Amino acid sequence: MDEEPSSYERVAYKNDSVYHYMKICLIFGNERKPLSAEQFKQLIISGLKELYGEVGAAFPFDVLTFDQFVLSAILRVYNNGLVKLWSALTLIGSCENESCAFRVTQVSSSVSKLILVLKSTGTSCRSL
Amino acid sequence: MSSHLEKCARSLLVCEKSSFMNEASRHETHVCKHSFNYKISVLIPECGVLPADIANVISHFKSYFLVRDLPVYKFLDAKFLDTVKKGGFYALSYKTRIDEDNVVALLSSGHLVLSLDKDTYQQLGLEGKPSEYKHRKDMRYVVTVDLTDKSLVPGTKRFQQVLLSLKERVPLKSDFLLTRCPPGAEEDGELQALLSQHTYEECRPTVISRSLTDIPRPSLHPSDLRGNAHSCTPVQFLEWLGSVNLNIRCNNSASSFLSTYVCPEPCATVNKVLLCTVTGFIPPEDVYALLQELRRCLAEPGFTDWVSLTVHGFADSPVSWGAAEHGFLKGGENFYNLVCFKNQDYWLHMATGSQDGCPP
């Protein structure tokens, strides 16, 4: 550990993160299907393949967290895959013959910036 | 595929490295300029229980008030004006969205900021300027009224004009979060007296402490802010910090189907990490008091090498740092993080989203 106080330094990064993070949740029209995290990711992958084909959908994304009770998740995707992933999520309309829709509540370039929705402080929760 | 589909909205991260002992250090300015804070996270590695001194500082955080249906012109009442002029008064409209609704904020400097949609702005008749964050046409306007201005005292022409606009032309009202950090002597009950004619509730900040075990932790070296040699990069560090806050697993294998996220290298596993989160309407003065206490604790022998203090601003606040305009777009993020080291060095990370100026 340095004992000398550091000299001042300032660095500004613009669009430095290679990832984007999406906070999403899945809602069902009628009956809610129980889904595991793997099934949840598979549903998104199948939506991507339907829209962009095998090759167009071949990019990685991660399901960082998944809450199976409220069906919400945090996804991590490379910047160049964000638009593809978002568009595929928008167009996914059914899961096992049950109508459903994805709601994107927050998109950010850093996972630190994803905010927890807190009623006490009126923190915003909206569909983007 | 078209290349413009691969572009993302702009995000900014400004990192500073300095020492608290440095006379020109701007840490106090940065903390005090970030007016509207809704969440603070303190992360202390190698610690299982929140130290009593830190818990004590948090327990002395100011209460805040949720006032229902407060007309905006009430801020022009003589009693309110006197309180506002003394400084340390913060108000923010509650559950209003910066990209859809009319949002009102009162800064400790005495500036009343109204972020209004076009219709309201045109009816109001107060001079403002178009929002910096627009698509094609000006659809949103920002009006700033300096309540400490000498020309804005009851009886003057300017005062009558502002009162007429806010009381009769457009009787704006909203639920508000209010808090007060009076400089100097404590004046308990003054805010309650002001609010006595309105429906309000007094709220305390919510404190949640979690002790996490066996967490991979990145190695940090105070002199290596950019992560060239001994530390990880600031982006990687903030990603790790976010993953701890959101309970994200960071020991996945590279072939995992669900997630391949891992803690940035170089890293080491720590037995325990304490994460304390405070949420509410927290004035910057309280954040600064907590920072000072963390610094004091760090100086004690046997305490951990570094601690991290993350402060999130309200996503729907009309300002971020100082009076700089803030917008939402896809997240409304505006936060800063201070990593304090044992030798009184610190790193400051300030991050904003697309609709924000460069942090100061």
TrEMBL record, chain A:
It comes from the Eukaryota. One of its GO terms (cellular component) is multimeric ribonuclease P complex. Gene3D superfamilies: Ribonuclease P, Pop5 subunit. Keywords: tRNA processing. The keyword rRNA-binding does not apply. It holds the Pfam family RNase_P_Rpp14. GO terms for molecular function: ribonuclease P RNA binding. This is Uncharacterized protein. The keyword Transmembrane does not apply. Belongs to the eukaryotic/archaeal RNase P protein component 2 family. GO terms for biological process: tRNA 5'-leader removal. Signal peptide: none annotated. The lineage of its organism: Eukaryota, Metazoa, Chordata, Craniata, Vertebrata. The gene is RPP14.
UniProtKB/TrEMBL annotation, chain B:
GO terms for biological process: endonucleolytic cleavage in ITS1 to separate SSU-rRNA from 5.8S rRNA and LSU-rRNA from tricistronic rRNA transcript (SSU-rRNA, 5.8S rRNA, LSU-rRNA); tRNA 5'-leader removal. It holds the Pfam family Ribonuc_P_40. One of its GO terms (cellular component) is multimeric ribonuclease P complex. GO terms for molecular function: ribonuclease MRP activity; ribonuclease P activity. PANTHER family: RIBONUCLEASE P PROTEIN SUBUNIT P40. This is Uncharacterized protein. It comes from Electrophorus electricus.
